[in-house]
Structures are given as C-alpha cells and as structure tokens.
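Intended use. Records like the one below are meant for learning the mapping from a protein sequence to its folded structure. Do not use them to infer anything beyond what is encoded.
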Amino acid sequence: MRLLPQSLFGRLVLILLAGLLLAQSLSALIQFRDRGDTLYQASGLQSAQRIADIVRLLESSGPREREQLVAALNAPPLRISLTDPPWSETDSKMTSEGLAAVFRALLDRSLGGGYSLTVAVTETTSMAPVQGSMGPGHMGMGAPMGGRHMARLGVLPPGGLSFLAQVRLRDGTWVTFEHRIPKEVFAWSTRLLLTLAVLLAAVVLLSLLAVRWITRPLSILAGAADELGRDIHRPPLPETGPVEARHAARAFNTMQARLARYIKDRTRILTAVSHDLKTPITRLRLRAELLDDPKLRASFVKDLDEMQAMTAATLDFLRGMESEEAIQPVDVRALLESLKADADEMGRKVEINGDNPAPYPARPLALKRCIANLIDNALKYGGQAHITLTEQGKQLRIVVADEGPGIPEQELDKVFEPFYRVETSRSRDTGGTGLGLSIARNIARAHGGELVLRNRRGGGLEAVLTLSR
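Structure written out for the chain above:
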C-alpha cells in the first residue's frame, strides 16, 4: 500500500505506535470507567449514611421540632423537605437503574430496614419529580438514560449528580432528600491524565530507540552494499552488535573478499593474455611487410591493426575496472572545456551548454576517459557533439547528443556489453572495438552514477551520464 512507510524503520514505528495508542486508549477507558463506578458507590454510601442519621434524628423529634430541624438542615449539598403525597408515577428522569438499586440497598442497610423507600439517581440540579413507587421493596424505575454512557466513563453529566430518596417515618410522614454531588468530584483527574501522557511518551521514546537500534545494522549493511559497487576494496564491515548482525557482517565481508579475489584473478589473466598478444602481433606485422603482393600485405596489416586496437582497448577496459586513482574535486565544466579544445584542434565540432556546477568529487583521469568516450562516440557516428551540463539538487547530469542515425530501441542497453556492436549503421568500418561504452558505464557506476542511451525525438542519439554527490 502507498500509505505505508517504505522503510523498515517506519513500518515498525507505525506498528508500535498504533499498538501503544490502542492499548493506552483501552487502559484509560477501563481506568476511567472503574474510577467512575467507585466514585458513584462511595458517593451513594456517604449520602445513605447522612440520610439515615437525619431520619433517626427526625424520628426522635416532634412535628414542630421536625420543621425546625428540616429548615436548619436544608442547605446545599443536601436538601430536605416534608413531602405529602410522594412522587407521582408519571414523572420520569431516571439516570441509572443500576445506581439507584445500589443506592437503595445502601440506604436500606443504613436505616436498619422497616422503612418504606422511594429512591432515584438523577442528573438534575433541583428537586425534580422522578418516577417511583411506594412501599417496602419498591423503587423508582428508569426511563431514558442519556447520561449513562458518560457515567460509565467517569464523566459527570452536565449539572452534577443527585441522589434522591423519600423515606416514610413511623408516624406516616414522608421526608424527601436530595443529596447533590458536585461535578468537580467526578471530573477527570489532571494528575491521572498527566501520568498516562508521561507513560505513553516514555514508552514511545523507548520504542523509537529500540527500533532504531534494531534497524541500524540493516542500514549499515545497505550502505556498505551500495558503496561496494563503487569500491570493491572498501574497508570491511565491523563485526559487532547482536549475533545476527555479526553473522550478516561476517557473510558480507566474506562475499566482498571473494568478489575482490575473483575480479583480481580474472583481470590478471585477461591482462596477461592481452599483453602477451602484442608480441605475436608485432612479429606478424614484420612478416606482413615482407610480402610481395601489395593487396595481400594491406589486408594483413588491416587485420593486425584491428587486433592491436582490440588488445589496447581490452587493457583500457581492465584498467578502468581496477582503477586505484585517488578521488579529488573536479571542475566538470573545465574538464569539458579541455575535451572541447582537444576536439577543436582536430577539426571536430563540440558545443557545451548549461550550468557551471561546484566541483565534483571524482577520479579525474577515469571521469575524463568516460566523457571522452561519449564525445568520441558522438563525433564518430553523428559528426558533431552537443554537450549539456545541468545540476539538479545532489545530481549532476551530462548529456552528450549527436545527430547520427540513432540505435534501435531494443539495442539501447545491449551496446554496453563488451565487444557488442550494432551491425547496421555502427559497424567496424567506422573504427573502434565495441568497448568504449562499456568502459564509460563502468566508470560511471564506479562513481555511484549511471549511464543510459536514448534516441532523440528529432533524430540522433544522446548519452545521459548522471552522477550523484
């Protein structure tokens, strides 16, 4: 999926963060729900005990004293009134049937039993009537419960919570109680939220460090593999870290040593063969000069010249693969100007356009050979070379275009193979050995760049050399 991060680090971080956020959200939900239930039960127990104490006090007082006591005790958060008749069964504003049942049980136990009760738990702020029924063993039955889901999360409904009860005294008098719990009691705890936030931040930070620590060996291995394409003789990877990282580094170092040994052996053999061919070619050239037939002598000399050119090109190709030239800043524009001056002296047409970029770290002789091969290729098959130099971000691009016949699309990549030639327009009659483009691409890749060919829309061929800083 395109929305997923492309790196292993990003995907691991995404999985860990998603899991942590989900776990923390569920944990917070459970904590707030349990906290809300605990606060409701504690508030109900406190309200039941206070109501029971007042009921006992009223039982021991006469009618006149009761009115005085009710007037004295009727103050927030507890409101008391002598009510007759009790609540009507048509009134309805119940918040939670479960809380009302708990509150009734607590109140009945605090009173010691034997009292007719009507109880309710509401989210009203005044002595609003609630649905109920009279008599022992009965309580108000609920209606709409709009604030129940908020209560379960520990969030107080707007206006606060009220425990309402009607108790019938021994002489038949009904007393109504409303004990309101302020919403501040049920408000979310700042300390609890801060604790959860700090815990989440700490776990996220540790997870990021752990993921970075785990994926770092992979990043180092990828960087080493990329650098290996530029320099086969790069220093070996340090074999440190976890067991798996040490094994991977050891395997990489072994592979690098085998590749270096293979390339060295192959290069030494091919170099020796190409070098040793010079001696018999020279002897054959001397013997060809002794031939009396001019036509036959010219044919022999032509073949020997071609063999000698192929041998020299092969040596150049192998030297390009084994270059140990030091890297240093190169003024690419000045390098192109020097190649243009060499072409001008030979009466060839070369044009240079584009930017004047900052010096590029390269192997000067190798880079010069790469670009010179591209210019020679354009002059050989197109008559002239148009060079465009541009710099885009960290990429340096050199485009060498000609006005020749171009190359079939299916042959554009094959021409980079050593000694491969397109036999139609680019044959041996034009000179060369078929190694120029191979040498140029090897040098480009040794610098961490790339070389591609493409046909121009208006005719001709262009070689695009891209170098990364």
